[in-house]
Amino acid sequence: MLKIWTMKQQQEKAENAEAAAAGDMADLTLPDTMRMDFADPDDMLNFTLIIEPDEGMYTGGAFNFSFAINQNFPHDPPKVKCLQKIYHPNIDLDGNVCLNILREDWKPVLNLNAVVVGMQFLFLEPNASDPLNKDAAKELRETRDLFKRNVRLAMAGQTVHRVSYDRVLK
């Protein structure tokens, strides 16, 4: 009997998270440089966000991020991961994203719109002061022109500092 009760509670949590995510989706306003892709149209909790910056150092690229919303949403932030290996101070080689509202600054009053705006800002103004990729951040701080050149090389699928990157140019 206890097992059935626990399963029912888990199902209710999942339904509540999906309802919260669906509400967020209805209020979500994506700029022209972003679109969402749902591998399973019935699963609102897992999707891909494609960002195609039209200004800044990452112009011309298409960057895919997986979003996984857990059962505690909106109390827990979505899990966001870059699906390509890119040269960026706030995204490590495993695809982890350093965005404060996805970690310690998350609050239940935040929504997916806040995350989308934060993701867009990472491509407009990479943050060298809170890096996951320390080498890229150091280069951005010390030799911005070299950093820009290496971003272009990496986006073209070239090797930068002995690391091969995924081609992300459209």
Give an overview of the whole structure.
It is a single chain. This protein is of the alpha+beta class and 170 residues long. Helix content is 35%, strand content 14%. It has a 4-stranded antiparallel sheet with strand order 1-2-3-4, with no helix packed on it. Helix 3 crosses helix 4.
Shape: globular
Biggest β-sheet strands, sense, barrel: 4 strands, antiparallel
Mean pLDDT metric: 90
Strand composition percent: 5-15%
Q: Enumerate how many helices there are, as a single number.
A: 4
Give the topology string: H per helix, E per strand.
HEEEEHHHEE
Question: How do the strands of the widest beta sheet line up side by side?
Answer: 1-2-3-4
Poorly predicted runs are none
Gap from first CA to last CA: 55 Å
Present the secondary structure layout.
Layout: H1 2-27, E1 34-37, E2 46-51, E3 63-68, E4 79-82, H2 112-124, H3 134-142, H4 144-155, E5 159-160, E6 163-164
Antiparallel strand pairs: 1-2, 2-3, 3-4, 5-6
Helix pairs in contact: 3-4
